[in-house]
Every structure is written in C-alpha cells, then in structure tokens.
C-alpha cells in the first residue's frame, strides 16, 4: 500500500459526501440534534473502525462530531481512508 497522489485524492473525494483534505487527512464534521445522538454515532463509528482495523481521530463538541482519517503508518492518505469514509457516509 502506498499513499495516494494528489490526483487519486481528488478522485477519491468525488465519491464522498462533505469530506475535505486537512493536512495529511480527510475530514468531515457531522451535526446531530443533541449530544446523545452524537455519542450514538461515535459508538457506531467505533464498531466500524474496529471491524476495519482503521481508526479515525474523533473530536466531540456537544452535538458536533469531527472525524479525521489518515493512515498513520504511511503519514498520508491511502485506500484505507477512502474506504472507511465511504462506509461512514451512509451512516448519517
């Protein structure tokens, strides 16, 4: 596995909803009606991340959840990041 080129990143983002590049990661913010709904979403993400053995950085700010995906062992974006993002998109 290798890090994605700028062109691969652009193509990968076209398949996603609301994700953008931030540094060496792709990131998306989700807004929920309340804190409990936000935490329920995070719990679903935790299960999905374990299943994929790929874990996002998660920031919870009341009813806003920000997910940031990067492949740490490659210091950049790889297929793993875009695959997990594609699995997360339908969960919202």
Write structural notes for this entry:
There is one protein chain. By secondary structure, the protein is α+β, with helices and mostly antiparallel strands. The chain has a domain at 35-92: Gyrase A, domain 2 (2-Layer Sandwich). The chain contains 3 helices and 4 strands. The chain has a 4-stranded antiparallel β-sheet with strand order 1-2-4-3, covered by helices on one side. The N and C termini lie far apart (29 Å).
List keywords for this structure.
alpha+beta, single chain, four-stranded antiparallel beta sheet, Gyrase A, domain 2, 3 helices, 92 residues
Short description:
The chain is an alpha+beta fold and 92 residues long. The protein is 40% helix and 23% strand. The chain contains three helices and four strands; from the N terminus they run H-E-E-H-E-E-H.
What would CATH call the class of the domain at 35-92? Alpha Beta
Strand order of the biggest β-sheet = 1-2-4-3
SSE order, one letter for each helix or strand:
HEEHEEH
Question: Ranges with pLDDT <50 over ≥5 residues?
Answer: none
* Proportion of helical residues: 40-55%
Please outline the major beta sheet: 4 strands, antiparallel
Return the average pLDDT rounded to an integer.
97
Named CATH topology of the domain at 35-92: Gyrase A, domain 2
Strand content: 15-25%
Structural class estimated from helices and strands: alpha+beta
Topology:
Elements: H1 6-14, E1 20-22, E2 25-31, H2 35-52, E3 57-61, E4 64-69, H3 79-88
Antiparallel strand pairs: 1-2, 2-4, 3-4
């Amino acid at each position: 596995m290798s890090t994605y080129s700028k062109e691969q990143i652009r193509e990968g983002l076209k398949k996603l909803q609301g994700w953008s590049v931030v540094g060496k990661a792709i990131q998306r913010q989700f807004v929920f009606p309340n804190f409990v709904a936000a935490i329920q979403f995070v719990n679903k993400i935790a299960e999905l991340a374990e299943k994929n053995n790929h874990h996002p950085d998660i920031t919870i700010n009341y009813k806003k959840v920000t997910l940031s995906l990067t492949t740490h062992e490659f210091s950049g974006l790889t297929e793993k990041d875009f695959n997990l993002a594609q699995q997360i998109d339908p969960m919202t």
